[in-house]
Design a protein that fits this description.
This protein has 364 residues and is of the alpha/beta class. The chain has helices spanning 17-31, 41-49, 55-66, 68-75, 125-142, 161-170, 192-195, 224-228, 234-249, 253-256, 265-275, 279-282, 287-290, 293-297, 316-325, 336-353, and strands at residues 2-6, 36-38, 80-85, 91-96, 99-105, 119-122, 148-149, 152-155, 175-179, 208-212, 262-264, 308-310, 354-355.
């Protein structure tokens, strides 16, 4: 995250050890590439020429000085950044046009644990790795900033996402949580993992934010070409070709499709009967579904020969992450309805987890 320091007077902190410690910790978090710190020229000068700061702190502040112009231009481009106010305690969130500003008191940074990369809670390590790939793609090819993204992983493990998030919030940590919405139909409510996150959790009112993605599951965010490269059976190839065809005229299909388990006609009939037409119109051009009487009548007759669209299995995300991790992301083909989600998630992750791109400074 980018921390912009205000109301800071380094040369008078000899007798205010908490402020001295907080400032040194902040300067070090930038030097160690865990976060970005923006200082005004007077603050930089005071640290450089004061006798009360360590050699490593002075070395790191010179690093901040060299990148000051770049950081100044970046501040206005981020969806959210933080002001660290040395005349303030507590937390305050402010909306400024289309940007959120989190004002944090200096005392939070007295603890060296709080200068680590921002905590990111996801439903598993594979989710974290895939979101990190989205952030990397965004940073390199979609964003105009010259930054990288870094987070501290916290395993939400599905149903544990909310308790882990709440625990980090109660400890006063800076934390971003990203979770699936598990919706199997546009008019159906969210699943149990995301529905427990409150309106307050999803709002800017502190140092934390829970973000529920706009699709059923993380697999819905995988580009079709990336899925194609990992197919392992003829049945999966058939499903892929059907989805690829459906995608041309029904791009919402993948937002609600269960990529791991697939679907069968009985289930989609029941879902559409409960929540309105969605699946049946989408499947109307696939004859093995649309030719059935149950399809035409929107009623299941328990024929025990229900047509299915098989899923890609539980390991698809693992295969995709492994493949993309060793690929040139610049060459990745991403369809328009997926790239819009990548852009939104990438923008969010960049704001919460941005770090400088250059090598770590040498602390003497």
């Amino acid at each position: 995250m980018l921390f912009k320091i205000e109301n800071c007077s380094p040369n008078i902190y000899l007798n205010h050890l908490d402020k001295l410690r907080a400032l040194e910790n902040l300067i070090h978090t930038n030097g160690l590439r865990k976060n970005i710190v923006f200082l005004d020229r007077n603050t930089i000068s005071d640290v450089k020429y004061s006798d009360i700061y360590s050699a490593s702190t002075k070395n790191f502040v010179i690093d901040i000085e060299k990148q000051r112009r770049e950081y100044g231009a970046i501040v206005e481009k981020l969806a959210v950044y933080s002001i660290v106010d040395f005349d303030f305690t507590g937390v305050q969130c402010i909306r400024k046009i289309d940007q959120w500003i989190i004002r944090i008191g200096y005392d939070f940074f007295c603890d060296p644990e709080n200068i680590s990369p921002v905590n990111l809670v996801t439903e598993g390590k594979l989710d974290f790795d895939f979101y990190s790939l989205i952030a990397k793609y965004y940073a390199k090819y979609l964003s105009s900033t010259n930054l990288e993204v870094n987070f501290k992983f916290n395993n939400g493990g599905g149903s544990q996402s909310k308790p882990i998030f709440d625990n980090l919030v109660s400890e006063g940590k800076i934390v971003l949580c990203i979770t699936d919405n598990d919706k199997s139909h546009p008019n159906k409510g969210e699943g149990s993992t995301s529905s427990v996150f409150t309106i307050s959790d999803r709002s800017y009112n502190g140092k934390s934010l829970a973000h529920v993605i706009d699709v059923r599951e993380i697999e819905s965010l995988i580009p079709l070409k990336a899925i194609e490269n990992t197919l392992s059976s003829n049945d999966q190839v058939d499903t892929f070709e059907e989805i690829k065809s459906l995608n041309t005229y029904y791009p919402q299909f993948r937002q609600y499709f269960d990529h791991k388990e697939g679907l069968n006609l009985e289930n989609v009939i029941n879902i559409d009967n409960d929540h309105g037409n969605f699946w049946l119109p989408a499947l109307s051009n696939i004859s093995r579904f649309s030719n059935r009487e149950c399809f035409k009548d929107s009623a299941c007759y328990s024929c025990n020969s229900c047509p299915k669209m098989i899923g890609f299995g539980d390991n698809m995300l693992k295969r995709v992450v492994a493949d993309l991790s060793k690929s040139n992301l610049r060459r990745l083909q991403i369809e328009p309805e997926v790239i819009s989600h990548w852009r939104n998630i990438g923008e969010l992750m960049m704001a919460w987890g941005c770090v400088p791109v250059s090598s770590i400074s040498r602390a003497s």
